[in-house]
Amino acid sequence: MARIWLAILIASFGWGTGGVATRASLNEGASPVTIAVYRGAIATVAVVVFLVIQRRGIIPRSMAALRVGLTMGITNMAVPFVLSNIALQYASAGFLGLMTALIPILTAVMAHFLLKGERLTGVRVVGLVVALAGVAALMLSGDSGLAEGGRPVYAGILGLISVLAISYGGVYAKRFAGQYRTLDASGIHFLSGTMVIAVIWLVGEGLPKAQTLRALSLMAYLGLVSTFAAFALYYWMLQRVSATYASLTGYVVPVFAIVSGIVLLDERLQAGIVVGGALILIGVIITDRSYRRPGRLRTPSATG
User: Fold this and answer.
1) Angle at which helices 2-27 and 79-87 pack, to 10 degrees?
2) Is there a contact between 205 and 33 (Cβ–Cβ < 8 Å)?
3) Residue 292 Cα distances to 127, 295, 297, angstroms
4) Can you give the pLDDT at residue 109?
5) What is the model's pTM?
6) Through-space distance between the first and last CA atoms of the chain, rounded to whole angstroms
7) Cβ proximity of 289 and 244 under 8 Å
8) Which tens digit of pLDDT belongs to each residue from 93-139?
9) pLDDT surpassing 70 at residue 56
């Protein structure tokens, strides 16, 4: 389990600091969709280069990889990248990071209906209720984590749609665990997601505009660390543990998001964020308890 938790920590660091890098890119004048398309394109190139170096081929070897990759391109890339980037104009990285903590609980709910052996127990229902109370407190408090210009309700709705999409994508990918190679699915995921975002980009904003060197550096970080490395590790985990357990990255993301936002962007740890975040994390902890029994973590492994 040490390798699983190391993967969770690295992926969580990538995703947690991604919000900070995105807000910094927005401060450099890049638009939300521009950031999303650069991020996706850089991650796609990274996957292709890695596959070529490893001499593994860039053509998927199974229909499962194609199905999972295309689905994840929409649910775990196009939808959350665009919506979260828009939301980060109106709330702090820590605020959106706390929304990410809902992923394990929402994954558990969806897994109950879509996967065998991942039942929604009474304890998990209690955790869901507590976490949703935290979301309500977070959105209605009026605190966005920004000194000015915040819109927590609007940002919260966009964040909630994003985590719903991500949760569904994780459950869908888990349905085919053992039938695809990790990097096969990642390559299709990044390519298809980037293509969807690029269409939105060209229709909504026209031809690309010049970006500052700092913005390009930040978007390179988003593509390599917050996307390529984080998602590759997430797929790797899905081959080895339950969908809900793999989604516990959402448990750690808020810590990295809040701390890095305060240190690097002078974001605020306001009362609404503390109370709402505490309820969300308590709900996640309650849900997580049912996954701490021996024999609940392993699933059939796959080549990846």
Assistant:
1) 50
2) yes
3) 15, 9, 8
4) 87
5) 0.84
6) 17
7) no
8) 999 988 888 887 888 888 888 887 777 778 888 888 998 899 999 99
9) no
